[in-house]
Amino acid sequence: MKKCIIRFAAVILAAAVPAIASAQFISYSPAKKFVEVDAHIFAGTSGIIQNYGGKFPSLTEVTADNGAGVGGGFGAVFGIRQWLGFGTELNLLFGNNKLNMAVSDAESVSMSTIFIRNRYTYLNIPLFISFRFNILPGLRWNVDAGLYYSYGLSGRQHQTIYRSYVNDLGQLVPVTVDTKTGYFTNSDTFINSYYRGDIGVHLATAIQFGKHFFVGMRFQVGMKNISYNHGIVNPNIHSLNFMGCLGYKL
């Protein structure tokens, strides 16, 4: 059985090597089309990288969970050579994330548990260099690297705070506060709000089948601290998106 598997793999490899060679893995010829336009959708996770615990000692526990992220849009790649192009996209991104915090005071006479749910919509514009490699005839591998700019269109924050404290009679008093606020540059958000503008690194890869369909993945991480806070202590918060992508070249 082992010998059969080895022979089968050798046959596949022997057939694949000439096909890869004939496909010209890197083609330096002029681009076949000056502009390649596509429509695409993507889905995955969206969230933030934060350092609340290091900035605020009263936060005894902080967890940040990425939520679902979906979106879509249109893209264009301007061909320089068959292996190289410059591209951009215009996307809408819908995302959400969760923050859970525990807060206690120095005297341990009060304790709060805070659950925060953020939802937001961004206009997302990547600018990138696109490298294109021919794996097999009719099968192309695209690798994109560049920067993105995002602008927050809308968003909201849902806060649920469970607080308990000991009153002057020594009784434990529970309090629940439920609040909904805006997300961008809003003074009512918990600890900090968020700037609308964001800039960061854009990386993507995809396999294109034939002339039209492609499937891939994309990763974006923010370089800008998007925390909007007028207080003395301001946390460092950076956006993070990881998505799978499905598209069609027009």
Overview in brief:
The chain has 250 residues and is mostly beta strands. The protein is built from 2 helices and 11 strands.
Describe the structure.
This protein is mainly beta and 250 residues long. Helices cover 10% and strands 66% of the residues. The protein contains two helices and eleven strands; from the N terminus they run αβαββββββββββ. The chain has helices at 2-22, 52-55; strands spanning 35-50, 59-81, 84-104, 110-136, 139-166, 172-182, 193-194, 197-209, 213-222, 227-228, 237-249. It has an eight-stranded antiparallel beta barrel. The longest helix has 21 residues, at 2-22.
What key phrases describe this protein's structure?
11 strands; about 250 residues; mainly beta
The 3D shape can be described as elongated
Main pleated-sheet profile: 8 strands, antiparallel, barrel
Tell me the span between the first and last alpha carbons: 47 Å
Q: Give start-end ranges of low-pLDDT stretches.
A: none
Strand line-up across the major sheet: 1-2-3-4-5-8-9-11
Assign a percent range to the helix content.
10-25%
Strand content: over 45%
Gyration radius (Cα, Å) is 25 Å
Oligomer: single chain
Please trace the helix and strand order, writing H or E for each element: HEHEEEEEEEEEE
The chain-level structural class is mainly beta
User: What is the number of helices?
Assistant: 2
Number of E-state strands: 11
Arithmetic mean of pLDDT: 87
List strands and helices in order, with pairings.
Elements: H1 2-22, E1 35-50, H2 52-55, E2 59-81, E3 84-104, E4 110-136, E5 139-166, E6 172-182, E7 193-194, E8 197-209, E9 213-222, E10 227-228, E11 237-249
Antiparallel strand pairs: 1-2, 1-11, 2-3, 3-4, 4-5, 5-6, 5-8, 7-10, 8-9, 9-11
